[in-house]
Design a protein that fits this description.
Elements: H1 3-18, H2 27-43, H3 45-52, H4 60-87, H5 96-117, H6 126-137, H7 140-147
Helix pairs in contact: 1-2, 2-6, 3-5, 4-5, 5-6, 6-7
Length: 148
Amino acid sequence: MSHTDAGVDWLWTPHDATLPRPTPDWLAPDGRAIEVNLAGMAASPAFARACLIEVLGAGPAALARRNIVQNRFADQLAAIHRRARADIPEIPSLAPSTFRAAVGAVNELVTAHVLEHGAQTLPELTDAILDVHLALLVGRELAARIAT
């Protein structure tokens, strides 16, 4: 297991414990997962840089591992979307590519923040990331109703 794999597993442990619990509130686990992920990266800025920036030039094996991690995030978003649809049937079904696109959108926000401000302040992005998730997974109109 590489250092990156160990770091990803360390970062992931709180998510995996957070998301599978049955809960009528499908949004709370997403917010908690975002907070835990950003706090973990903020606590280890070198790890954040390696996972977000340096991985892109680290060769095929690192890119393959990144793809696995990105798919894991997309799977989490798909699970959140399923829970949301169970609670709010008017939420439309989405193509699997939407979940991967949401991961890409968040990745760009987080990477830009690390480049511009450093990883230590990543928790400041929690609300912005939750907004992206809501807008893409349930739609802007319904997201506005949920927020109020």
